[in-house]
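Minimal example, chain plus zinc ion.
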Amino acid sequence: MLASLRTYLTRKVHASQRLCVLRARPKASGVLVRRKYLALDARDARKAVCRLFASDHPFAVERLRRRSPPVPREWRICRFCRGRNMVEDEAHVLMLCRAEPLRSRRGAFMQAVYAALRSEKRAWPEQSPLSFLNAVIAEECTEHIAAKYILDMFQCCDAVPILVVTSVEQFHSYAMP
Ligand SMILES: [Zn+2]
């Protein structure tokens, strides 16, 4: 029974375009497993990690999908860099966007992560942005840094109005970076 539920959920996660952070989690980590980050003391930060995994975050890729009528995915442009081909999704906001205030916050986050890894004498291979983020969340010495960072990035989004594109003309008014 549990095995078939696990198989069902694994298939569901990997078929879902929305659950891209969960999809980037190593397959070996499985489903229906209690994660270490759930024991984090900081309630708001812990909740932010759960929201990120469940695609219940403030990024335009999700918020504008829920809008009526839904905004086409490629029109869900990043509110910070406003580049025409920059969809405001999880990887873009958390790991790639070069606009402020995201860039400086990410710089501090990366420094803290690498300092923690150095002090534990750990090194990680090169990996995709979302795989890296999953590794930082899963690792005991960095999970609190990741959770605080994710909460901080959510708050950055809450402080800046979302960019709503409603026409082809408006979409083309934003420059390609
Ligand atoms: Zn951006």
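The chain has one domain: 35-172. Residues 35-172 form one domain.
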